[in-house]
Every structure is written in structure tokens, then in C-alpha cells.
């Protein structure tokens, strides 16, 4: 199955750690060159680049705050200057839930979640779409949403609403871009062992408690999510668009059990 992304150029936001980093590595294994972005963790981005190059592929690192439209424009300009085009976009960078209930949720906190999780993906999609249209069409967009596009959490309004909005952006884009041969899908992870869940990674007791609501009784490894991203980025998924692929160990099937 190796080589499914041969000669493709992939841009993965937030690829300095977690799902984004794991996906950059899996894409490189399949033959893709990778545009790696980070906000603060340059060391993590450099580790990603080293792994991409270890698999014989090229990479470039671009520091980007995706909530800033000018920085997103510069990101795509550098991607095209380096590689000529971009075939695959994975909108992975995001901010987590604040934990604040709506009555106590600061406007600035709400704005940050919407700016990064929704506007950031919107900016990236718009630039990517224009690049692909100029190239004659074709391409893949993968938006990393969450089970929380469907499952709300108290204290998670900022995150839950942003992921629901991203889900609907995907659905709209699937309709708009089908005539251009551009596929748009969501990856909806459940609990994954990334920095978003650092507390559980660092404390086995916390992890054990948190996985009890998951039928498989474990969290996912980032590489498991990344391998599904490879499928969605490949020609194997050419007839797949507008869908959300949940990867949650059965969490969503467990809703309402015992009621």
C-alpha cells in the first residue's frame, strides 16, 4: 500500500505535534512532500521535518498563526514558491476548550477559538481552493473536527461551537467543490494522546478514569488518526466527500447507554 501519495504536496497546519505531526510522517511514508506549520513549538516542527526527511521526502517549516489572514497568505505563497503547488490541505491546527461555562466565558476566549478553529480553516481553504482551480482542479481537503461537533461538553461552548461550524463548512465546500474534483471531508477524533490530553498522558489514574466512557477503554494514538488521514488524502477516497469519519473507540455509540 506504500506510495499512495507519491509526488503529492501536502500542507498540514499544526504539524509540530500530535495528530498533525503523526500525519506529516505518515504522508511522507506514502511519498508526499510536506509543508509543516507551527505557532510556538519550532523544536517540534524541526522534529517533524527530520522524520519527513528520514523517509526520503522534502519538507519546509513555516511559522504561522492561522487566525491571521496575512500569515495564511504568506504560508501558501511560501508553499507554492518551494514546491510549485499544493495538492492536499489538512486543517489540523486548533485550540482546545477553555473549560469556562458560557456565563463566565470571556469574549476574548470565545473569539480566539472561533478565529483559530473556524476562520483559520476558512482562510486556508480559500487559498487552497484558488490554487487547485488554477491548476485545473483536483485535490483533497481534510478538516480535523472532533466528536464534539456532535457531543457537547459543559465548559466547552467555544470548542464545541467552533467544531460544529467547521463540520458545516466542510459540508458546504463538498457541494461547491465537487464539480472541480476537490474532495472535502472531516476527521472527527475522540480522545487522542496528544498535548490536548497532556494531563491524562502524565497521570495514569486520570487516563484510566477518562477512558471509562469509551467502549474500547483506551485513547487513540496519533498515528492511528494519521493513517485514516492517508486514506482520505489518497485516490482511494476519490468518491468520498462531505463525510465525517469518527475515530473514537466507539464513544459516540455509547451515548445513552444505561438510560
Provide an overview of this structure:
By secondary structure, the protein is an alpha/beta fold. It has one domain (9-247): NAD(P)-binding Rossmann-like Domain (Rossmann fold). Helices cover 44% and strands 14% of the residues. It has helices at 18-29, 42-54, 69-83, 107-134, 157-177, 198-202, 204-210, 222-233; strands at 9-12, 33-38, 59-63, 88-91, 139-144, 182-189, 244-247. The chain has a 7-stranded parallel β-sheet, sandwiched between helices. α5 (157-177) links the parallel β5 and β6 (182-189). α1 packs across α8 (222-233) and α3 (69-83) runs parallel beside α4. The chain is globular, with a radius of gyration of 18 Å. The model has no long low-confidence stretch (mean pLDDT 94).
Strand and helix layout:
Elements: E1 9-12, H1 18-29, E2 33-38, H2 42-54, E3 59-63, H3 69-83, E4 88-91, H4 107-134, E5 139-144, H5 157-177, E6 182-189, H6 198-202, H7 204-210, H8 222-233, E7 244-247
Parallel strand pairs: 1-2, 1-4, 2-3, 4-5, 5-6, 6-7
The secondary-structure class comes to alpha/beta
Question: Number of folding domains?
Answer: 1
- Broad shape: globular
| CATH architecture term | 3-Layer(aba) Sandwich
Descriptive keywords:
259 residues, alpha/beta, Rossmann fold, 7-stranded parallel beta sheet, globular
